[in-house]
Amino acid sequence: MPLPQTEAPGRLQAELMSRGLRMTHQRRTILSVVETAKQHLDASQLLRRARRLDPRIDRVTVYRTLALLKRHGLVDELDLMHMQGEKHYYERRPQRDHIHMACLRCGKIMEFESDLFDRLKGQIQRDCQFHIVVTRLEVGGYCAQCRTSSSS
Amino acid sequence: MPLPQTEAPGRLQAELMSRGLRMTHQRRTILSVVETAKQHLDASQLLRRARRLDPRIDRVTVYRTLALLKRHGLVDELDLMHMQGEKHYYERRPQRDHIHMACLRCGKIMEFESDLFDRLKGQIQRDCQFHIVVTRLEVGGYCAQCRTSSSS
DNA sequence: ATAATGTTGCAACTCAGTATCAAAAAGGGG
DNA sequence: CCCCTTTTTGATACTGAGTTGCAACATTAT
Questions:
Q1: β-strand B131-142 against B41-42: which pairing, if any?
Q2: CB contact, 8 Å: A119 with chain B?
Q3: CB under 8 Å to A22, separation ≥6 — which residues?
Q4: Does the C-beta of B60 come within 7 A of strand D?
Q5: How far is the CA of A71 from the CAs of A25, A91, A101, in angstroms?
C-alpha cells in the first residue's frame, strides 16, 4: 500500500534550491513553518510562528517568501470566502487539487477531492483552449452540524 | 424560442422593494449601474459611474449597497485571481453559476458554464451534506491567443 | 578570503474596506 | 399634505493587509 503522498519535510527547500535560489536562514525557517502547518494559515499567523523559531524575521520577508513560493507554484493562495477580513491563507500545493468548503455559520473549513472536478478542469482546457495554471474552487454554505442544529 | 433570461432593468430594485427595503435615490442609481454593466466592475469603478448619474453619492454608500446586495444573494463577489490589487469585482447573480477564467498574460476574463460544474455542486451537497449558498470557481492560466503568440 | 549579487529589515506608504455619528430622507398614519 | 419614527446617508477618521525604496547584510561562486 503506497503512502498517501510522502510529505517529506524539507521538500519545499529542496525544490527552491534545485531552482538555483539562495537558501537563507529566514527562508528555511518560513518554509519549515509552511511545511509543518496543520491548518490554513494567513501571513500574520505564519509570521508569528516563524518568529518563535527566529525572532528577527520581519513580516516583509514573510510576504516576499510567500510571493516566491506562489510564483514557483509551490503554495496555493486561498481566500476561504473572506469570512473574516480580506486576508489570504496559504497551503502547500497538493498533488491533486481540492475544493474548499467554508461553513458560513461555524467557520469550519472542509476539503473535498472529486473526479468530477478533475474532469471539469479537463473540459475547460479542451473546450476553451485554456491552459490552466491554478484553480480555486471555494464554496460557502452550511455544514451538516450547522444545518441541523438551529438555523436554515 | 424563450428569451435567454430577460434581464429586465429594474429587476434588482423590484427585488429589494419586495423585501421591504427603502428605495432611496442613491440605491436606485447604484442598482442601475450594476444592472447595466457589461463587464465586471470593482467598487471604485461603480462609484465613478454612479457619480456620473448623481454626483453626491459617496463611496461608503456604494460599499453599503454592495454589502446589501450580497446579503440578499443578488450579486456575486469575485476576486478574478487578484490580478491587480486586492479589490473585488461584482456581477448580478446569474440564473446558472459559471466559471471565471482569467488569462495571466493579457488579463482577459472568460466565463464558462458547464453541466459538469452543476453535477459537481450536486455531488458536494450530497457527499458532504453541505448546503451550498454560494460558489466561486476561478481559474488562472493562459488563453488560446496568449498560449500561441509567444510565451507558453 | 573576496567580490558580485541577491536578500533582509526598517520605515514609510498605498489602497480597499469599515466605524462612528450627526444630518437628511423614506415611508406610514393621521 | 404634514408629522413622526426609523433607516439611510455623507463626511471623516480609522484599520489592516500588503507593497516600496533603500541602505546594510548574507550567500554563493571564485
A1: unpaired
A2: yes
A3: none
A4: yes
A5: 20, 14, 25
Q: How far is CA B115 from CA A96, A131, A145, B47, B96, in A?
A: 22, 20, 29, 36, 10
Summarize pLDDT for A10-52 with one digit per residue, the tens.
888 888 888 989 999 999 999 999 999 999 999 999 999 999 9
Exposed, middle or buried: residue B4 (CB in 10 Å: 0-12, 13-18, 19+)?
Answer: exposed
pLDDT average, residue stretch B50-77: 97
Nearest-CA distance from B53 to chain A in Å?
30
Q: Which three cell numbers stand for residue B68?
A: 446589501
Instruction: Tell the burial category of B40 from Cβ atoms under 10 Å away from its Cβ (0-12, 13-18, 19+).
Output: middle
Closest chain B residue by Cα to residue A110? B128
Cα-only R_g, chain B: 18
Confirm whether any atom of chain D, the nucleic acid strand, is less than 7 Å from CB of A43: yes
**Cβ burial, residue A25 (10 Å; 0-12/13-18/19+):** exposed
The predicted model gives B35-50 an average pLDDT of 97
Interacting residues of B79 by C-beta distance below 8 A, sequence separation 6+ = A79, B88, B89, B136, B138
B134-151 pLDDT tens trace: 999 999 999 999 998 754
Spatial separation of the C-alpha atoms in residues A124 and A128, rounded to whole Å: 5
Is residue A120 within 8 A of residue B117, CB to CB? The reply is yes
Q: What is this structure's pTM?
A: 0.91
pLDDT of residue A1: 54
Of A84, A26, A74, the closest CA to residue A50 belongs to: A26
pLDDT tens-place string over residues A100-110: 999 999 999 99
HSE of B128, CA atoms in CB hemisphere, 13 A? 27
Nearest to B94 by CA among B119, B71, B111: B111
